[in-house]
Amino acid sequence: MHPVIPYVIAALLFGIGVYGVLVRRNAVLVLMAVELMLNAVNLVLVTADATVRAYTGQTFALFVIVLAAAEIGVGLALVLQLFRLKGAIVLDDVAVDDVAAVDNPVDNLVDKPVDKS
Known about the structure:
Elements: H1 4-23, H2 27-52, H3 57-86, H4 105-111
C-alpha cells in the first residue's frame, strides 16, 4: 500500500476533529473530537514508522494512547463536575472568568485599610 493513503486519511480525520472542537457545544462531543485528532496523529506516527522502519513511531503512538486515556479520565471528571454544578454540559454556559470568592485571609488583609495611628 502506498503511504500517501494513510496520510490523507489522517489529515481528513484530523480535520474532522478540528471541526468538531470548533463547532460542537456539548463537552462530551468535544472530547470525542479531541480523541479523533489524537487517533489521526497515531495513524501518522505508525505510517511513518512503517515507511522509515525506525521503530520509534510505535513508541510515540503508545505514549499518545496513554495521553489520550489520561485526557479522557480528566475530561470526563471535569464534565461530571460541570454537570453537577450547572445541570447541563453545554460549553456555552461555562464562564471562564467567573471565579468563586474564596475565603482567603491574605486577600482579606489586602482589602482592609491599614490603620496607622
